[in-house]
Amino acid sequence: MATTEKHLLQLFSQLAAGDQASLLAFAEFLTSRGASETTAVRRKPIEIPAPEQIDRPQQESIVGCLKRLAKTYPMLDKNEMLKATSDLVATNIMQGGDTVDAIDKLERIFQNHYDQLKAGTGE
Q1: Which of 91, 93, 107, 118 has a CA-to-CA distance to 45 between 20 and 30 Å?
Q2: What is the Cα gyration radius of the chain?
């Protein structure tokens, strides 16, 4: 590996995740900007699997719902959804909201993240 590549890898590893994504996006932009149709780097499209169909039980707790949705959408990064899901769960527990309504909202959160993931891959 060339010294320049090692240096780039070292710098890259020191960046926060968001900055790493920005650097990759910029590198992809630079690569595609000057590349002709024949020399362009062709990335293999990422295939996002369909969610696993798991039926919603008649009586389900919030925790049970989160476990079901984690199995339904194993391709999603749960850390990205942590704020939205934890706020919803905490509000429901602290204020005693309607469990069915909270579960409906959790399902929409997971579905929306899945839709965003699919849209980001160009599928």
Answers
A1: 107
A2: 20
Instruction: Read off the pLDDT of residues 76-122 as tens digits, 9 standing for 90 and up.
Output: 988 888 887 998 888 888 888 889 999 999 999 999 999 998 887 65
| HEC sequence for the chain | CCHHHHHHHHHHHCCCHHHHHHHHHHHHHHHHHHCCCCCCCCCCCCCCCCCCCCCCCCCCCHHHHHHHHHHHCCCCCHHHHHHHHHHHHHHHHHHCCCHHHHHHHHHHHHHHHHHHHHHHHCC
How far is C-alpha 58 from the geometric centre of its chain's CA atoms? 28
The residues spanned by each domain of the chain are: 3-34, 62-121
| Segment 37-73, tens digit of pLDDT | 444 455 666 788 999 999 999 999 999 999 999 999 9
